[in-house]
From TrEMBL:
Residues 13-240 form the ABC transporter domain. It comes from Paenibacillus oenotherae. Pfam families: ABC_tran. One of its GO terms (molecular function) is ATP binding. InterPro entries: AAA+_ATPase, ABC_transporter-like_ATP-bd, ABC_transporter-like_CS, P-loop_NTPase. The lineage of its organism: Bacteria, Bacillati, Bacillota, Bacilli, Bacillales. This is ABC transporter ATP-binding protein. Keywords: ATP-binding, Nucleotide-binding. The keyword Signal does not apply.
Amino acid sequence: MTLTTSPHSHAAVVLQGIIRKFGKRTVLDGITLTIQRGELFGLLGPSGSGKTTLVKLITGIDSADGGTVHMLGQQMPRLSMLQRFGYMAQSDALYNDLTALQNLQFFAALYGLKGRQAMERINGAMEIVSLLPHLHKPVAAYSGGMKRRLSLAISLLHEPELLVLDEPTVGIDPVLRQSIWRELGAMRERGTTIILTTHVMDEADKCDRLALIREGKLTAVDTPEALKARTGSGTIEEAFIRLGEGEAR
Ligand SMILES: Nc1ncnc2c1ncn2[C@@H]1O[C@H](COP(=O)(O)OP(=O)(O)OP(=O)(O)O)[C@@H](O)[C@H]1O
């Protein structure tokens, strides 16, 4: 058997010289970044800095105007990769008129899950986000936070090797936020690569590495400890502000 290997097959994601423009505006300006398999990787940046645009390019939902994206050794966008990663978008892509179970069944079918296996995965994912008692409710009756949790459950359904989460804990209360982070930690222990965007500094601190993004450019990529040490900061928030000031000067 011949295995086709790509120079990027050891990394989870390789971005090379990514440019994305909307009209005359360059929203991502030469992003080069490698995320290793098994990393819990955070993208941190002010509102409008390009985080969502970047994760959409990683998942192949959007295409770059320049540069290349490789995910798990494959050049993106590529339809066949859909079954290998889970994606939780910033706005929930749910069918409001259907129950949570019907939504989950729809996505399970898309991922090729059937019968008892599909039901086991649905129950497991809903347990992780503490929504099992609400499985049969129509999504229209869910609160905003419950919809976020259901979206997260959907992204976990097929136990993907890579998870891409755009602000996964927005609108989720602190207790549940902690339990979701425990689960993300457990998934990382099992070898899942997790890429997430966040505004929450104590969440950023839990990542293995962080990329700081500002006005479409990476200003720093390192471990939270190294970013704090480099800027002489006690907290990631302080490091983030100092690195931003350095860029502006
Ligand atoms: N489809 C689009 N058409 C035009 N402009 C867009 C489009 N998508 C994003 N932008 C612009 O690109 C910039 C980056 O947006 P993006 O959503 O990636 O930022 P973000 O860092 O994720 O912000 P937030 O933290 O608020 O979600 C913004 O100025 C936004 O207005």
